[in-house]
Amino acid sequence: MGMQMLLMATGNTGVSLTPRTIADYHGVTVGTASATTTFELNSDGVARGFREQLSDEVYNGEWLVTGTNSSYEVMFTVLSGATPTGTLNTWLNLGTTRSVTVGATRSVAGVTSASSDVQVQIRTTSGLLVVTTVITISATAEFIV
Question: How far is the C-alpha of 137 from the C-alpha of 115, rounded, in Å?
């Protein structure tokens, strides 16, 4: 599905979320290569994307435009690819930070990759769906000889 954005807005929605691709890479010639990518919706109303090896935040955008964080819930659903860590297929209150993470590790010659297209749905606690989008998170670890 890639970077398609499906937006269902009803009236005056207090949330906003756009599709993103977040990727991490780590290559080594000795030891173990490890890459991890995380997408999170913070309880402070900010959506963030992190790349562990590159030690940076590649996405920082507000998901909560108006209202109260605990008035919304999120559900992460894998559409394709690797199964990320994090709670999937369950509505979770956004009064607490919620995230999904993929990782890849390699300690012998070659490349290991993990990628996941994750549907992110946000609804009100009363069940009114207000935003649906797709986030792609991926990690690649390479042991170079």
Answer: 6
